[in-house]
Amino acid sequence: MITRQLGRTGPVSSALGLGCMGMSDLYGPADREAAQATFAVAREAGITLLDTGDFYGMGHNELLVGEALRQVPRDQAIVSVKFGAQRGPDGAWLGFDARPVAVKTALAYSLKRLGTDYVDIYRPARLDPNVPIEDTVGAIAEMVQAGYVRHIGLSEVGSETLRRAAAVHPISDLQIEYSLISRGIEDGVLQTCRELGIGITAYGVLSRGLISGHWSGGKDAATDFRLHSPRFQGQALEHNLGLVEKLKAFAAARGATPAQLAIAWVAAQGQDIVPLIGARRPDRLTEALGALDLTLTPADLAELETIVPKGAAAGERYNPEQMAMLDSERR
Questions:
Q1: Which residues have C-beta within 8 Å of that of residue 279, sequence separation ≥ 6?
Q2: Is 270 within the bounds of a domain?
Q3: Backbone phi, then psi, for 162, in 5-degree steps?
Q4: Is the dihedral of CA 256, 258, 264, 268 positive or negative?
Q5: Which are the catalytic amino acids?
Q6: Cα–Cα distance between 239 and 135 in angstroms, integer?
Q7: Is 192 inside any structural domain?
Q8: Rounded to 5 degrees, what are φ and ψ at 50?
Q9: What is the pTM of this model?
Q10: For the chain, how many helices (H) and strands (E)?
Q11: pLDDT digits over 156-180, tens only?
Q12: In sequence order, which ranges of the chain are alpha helices (DSSP H)?
């Protein structure tokens, strides 16, 4: 497995990470057997970075990851945990809490569910508008000093927040959406990360399956949040699937699938970027791993820029309420 370092101060990770959210939540019913088979493929391939959140399935995902951790020596895995989102018993989203006392309480429960003594990267899933980022990062820094956390990460924050956070403690990486059709990071956030020596763990590299070449429509709006996303609705969906057809032809000419092409494009944007693959099934992860064998030349990248130029997608990546919560959208 090729490796990449997450920023100047972060850990050395496999060149691809495994995003575990969909194994428990938001993309349809959970399938434990398929999840564990996917973890097995990841282990065999040498994937070390496992990304989860304490609110994915209200703890269910951390329990799944905890099972996977027991299959390898602890120092051969990098566990990234997001926290802060508040949910009710019915799964409803209730808000966000990144107060120092909440940071430490959430971490205590995550360590127990994961069955580990420490988390490799701990990060708030969003910026809490009611809590200065200095307070949140300061609390995590105390957990670093105590040995419960190895590195501090952030997620979906803008340049000003990155600077303020980095002034308190080194930040290993920013987790943020980045794909051929989600390129807002290029409007300043990516440059700030590079200036500060902060790596990128890119999620949504397949735009939640939209540009994977496998999208056939969600089945249940109650369990698949994508059906509420502007990009997956009506004329926007029709337009975006038209872009996918162009990507299919481009990929086929290079002996690759659209998913492999999309992952390889993100990886080609810099050695400081680690794409997260949100695979729920072993065959999907196996396909994604093929991206490591796909080398995109400067000519390929230039042609892709004409096929799917920045801003080509129709519809925002989240609904308006969620977009308003993204500090990263404020640049």
A1: 18, 19, 22, 38, 285, 288
A2: yes
A3: -60, -45
A4: positive
A5: 56
A6: 43
A7: yes
A8: -115, 120
A9: 0.89
A10: 11, 12
A11: 999 999 999 999 999 999 999 999 8
A12: 32-45, 60-69, 100-114, 133-146, 159-166, 189-196, 234-252, 258-267, 282-289, 298-307, 320-324
Task: Supply the CATH number for residue 244's domain.
Answer: 3.20.20.100
Say if residue 89 is exposed, middle or buried (CB neighbours under 10 Å; 0-12, 13-18, 19+): exposed
User: In this structure, what is the dihedral angle of CA atoms 255, 20, 159, 185, given to the nearest 10 degrees?
Assistant: 20
Residue 297 DSSP label = P
Contact residues for 200 (Cβ-Cβ < 8 A; gap 6+): 173, 174, 175, 176, 178, 185, 190, 193, 270, 272, 273, 274
Please name the residue that has the structure tokens 């428990």: 24
Contact yes or no for 136/95 (Cβ under 8 A):
no
Token pair recorded at residue 2: 């090729």
Domain span holding position 158: 3-326
pLDDT in tens, 272-318: 999 999 888 999 999 999 999 999 999 999 999 998 888 777 667 66
For residue 229, give the 3-state DSSP assignment. coil
Is residue 331 in some structural domain? no
Rg, the chain, Cα only: 19
10 Å CB burial of residue 250 (0-12, 13-18, 19+) is middle
Task: State how far the Cα of 20 lies from the Cα of 34, in Å rounded to an integer.
Answer: 12
Q: Which residues of the chain have pLDDT under 70?
A: 213, 215-228, 314-315, 317-320, 331
**Number of compact structural domains in the chain:** 1
Give the per-residue pLDDT at 326: 76
Q: What are the residues whose beta carbons fall under 8 Å from the beta carbon of 121, sequence distance 6 or more?
A: 6, 10, 11, 78, 79, 80, 81, 149, 150, 151, 152, 153, 172, 173
Contact 57, 88 (CB under 8 A): no
> What is the total residue count of the chain?
331
Max Cα-Cα span within the chain: 54
Q: Does the residue 113 lie in any domain?
A: yes
Structure tokens at 281: 């099934």
